Give the backbone structure.
Amino acid sequence: MLNTTLKAFIWSLVLLVSAPVFSSSNEEGEKVDVNEMIMHHIKDAHEWHILTLEGEDGHEKHISVPLPIILIDGGLKVFLSSELYHGEHIEFTNEKGEHEHYVANEELGYAIYHEKIYKLNEAGLLDFHDGHPTNAKPLDFSITKNVFALIFSAILLFVILKAAVNTYKKDGLAPPKGLAKYIEPFVVYIRDDIAIANIGESKYKRFMPFLLTVFFFIWINNLLGLIPVFPGGANLTGNISFTLVLASFTLILTVVSGNKHYWQHIFATPGVPKALLPIMIPVEFIGIFTKPFALMIRLFANITAGHIIILSLVGIIFTFQSAAWGFLSVPMALFINVLELLVAFLQAFIFTMLSALFIGAAVSEHH
C-alpha cells in the first residue's frame, strides 16, 4: 500500500512539474519553445492563465481568469481583461524576421502587446519603430496577476498573524499554541538576533514592526512564488518592481532615521584628510543608494533564477523530445524545488538582516 502511494505521489509530482510545458505545446509532436514557456511563467500578465488546451477544431483554447483593467485616459476606464484579450489577433513580422502578434480591440481603442497596453491609431493598429510600438500608452493601474498575488498574500499574512495575536489575548502568558507556537520563535529570533544585535537595545523597538513585516511578507511570497512551477502561479518576489519598492522602504527608513553622526560620516568622514574629501564624499553618497540597490537585485535575481532553473530542467525533456531525459531532469528539478524552500527563508532572512544593519548604521551613536 505504501509503495503504491509513493508511486502515485511521484507520478503526480512529475505531471505537476511538467504541466507548464505541456500547456505550451500547440499540437501533438510539435516542438515546445522552452524559452517562451519559461518567460510566460515568470512575467506578469493582465489575466490569470491556468492552462492551454487544444479544441476540437484544432485551435488553442486558453483557460484563464480575467482580471480588472483600470486605465486613466481622458477619464477612468475599467473593464475586464477578457474584453481586450478577445479582440482581433493581428500578426506581423518584426525586423528580425520573426512572426509576432498583438491583440487589438477597436471598440475599446486599445491593444495589448507583450502585456503592455497601447492606444490604437486611427486605422485601429499599432505603429512600430525599431521593434517597439510608438503609440501612446494610457496610465495603467490594472490589477495584474502579480498585484492580485500581492493582495492575496497580504490578506493571508494578516489572517495568520491575527490568529496568533488572538491566541495571546485569549491565553495571556500561557505557553503559545496553534499558529502562535510556530510564529513566536521567528519573532523572538528577529528581535534578539537581528534587531537588537544590529540596531541596539535602546532603539530597536521602533523598527520591529517594519522588520517583522518585511520578513514575513517576503517569506510568504517566496513560498507562494514556488507555484509558478505549476500552471497559474504568480512570480511576485521575482518581479523587480516589487523588490524595488521593498528596497525603497529600507532606503527611506535609513535616510529619515539617520542621525548627525551618520551624515557626518558621509559628508565629513572622520580620519580622512581634507584633500581626499572630494573623492570620499561622492563615494559615500553613492553608497546610500547602492546598498538598497543590492537588496533589490539580490532578492529579484535569486528568486527568478530558481524558477528558471526548475523550468529549464523540465524543458530538457521536450527540447530533446525524449522521455528518457525525465529520469535525470525531473529528480534534479525536484531537488532544486526543495532547495528553493530553503532559499525562500534565506532570502527573507538576508533582506531583513541587511535592512537592520543599514538602519543600525544610521542610528548608532558615535564611538
About this structure: The first helix runs from residue 2 to 23. The CA atoms of residues 19 and 61 lie 16 Å apart. The mean pLDDT is 82.
